[in-house]
Specification:
There is one protein chain. The protein has about 140 residues and is α+β, with helices and mostly antiparallel strands. Helices cover about 30% and strands about 35% of the residues. It has a domain of about 90 residues: Gcn5-related N-acetyltransferase (GNAT) (Aminopeptidase, 3-Layer(aba) Sandwich). It is built from four helices and six strands. Strand 1 and strand 2 form a beta hairpin. The chain starts with 6 loop residues before the first helix and ends with a strand. The structure holds coenzyme A (COA). The site of coenzyme A has 17 residues, from strand 3, helix 3, strand 4 and helix 4.
Length: about 140
């Protein structure tokens, strides 16, 4: 678990998100960083070789988001570890619903964890998304 209020954690989280969302995916910086960070539960993944390499957050609404793994570290199971940890934490918090806004390319990734797509594709930060929920 990481804490937005702790400088070291916040710096690690923002560094990963900046590289993945702002630099790689061209999400505007003022959209990427929002007020929900203050009240979210944050997760950080660390590797011995590269230091902090991935992150995710769980918002007070039960929405999991900002799932990111540095490009050169993908495909090694880090995203899955983060997702499993996020779901465990979200269930522990007993949210009425656990959901996320998946970038459409990642729908298959999230469906592996039981998330089911619902509704129409919509635009968020210039990227196609679909809402997915985790059945109770
Ligand atoms: C999505 C993301 C976090 C996955 O992280 P990762 O560390 O690569 O995930 P894993 O190594 O645990 O991958 C597990 C499986 O999901 C698959 N997968 C990962 N990302 C995928 C994607 N975008 N689309 C489809 N399948 C994907 C992998 O191929 C892997 O399959 P395999 O087990 O058959 O090899 C990472 O690709 C990422 O940071 N992408 C850029 C940011 C992003 O798009 N975030 C999602 C916002 S909704």
């Amino acid at each position: 678990m990481a804490h937005w209020q702790k400088n070291d954690d916040r710096q690690a989280l923002t560094a990963i998100r900046y590289r993945v969302f702002v630099e790689e995916q061209q999400v505007p910086e003022d959209v990427e960083m929002d007020a929900f960070d203050e009240t979210s539960v944050h997760l950080l993944a660390r590797s011995d070789e590269y230091g902090f390499i991935g992150c995710a957050r769980i918002m007070p609404s039960g929405q999991i988001g900002r799932m990111a793994v540095l490009k050169h570290c993908r495909g090694g199971g880090t995203g899955s570890l983060l997702m499993t940890a996020a779901i465990t934490e979200a269930k522990r918090q007993n949210f009425e619903a656990i959901f996320l806004h998946a970038q459409c390319h990642a729908e298959t990734f999230y469906s592996r964890f039981g998330f089911v797509a619902c509704g129409d594709v919509f635009d968020e930060a210039g990227i196609d998304h679909i809402k997915m929920t985790l059945p109770a």
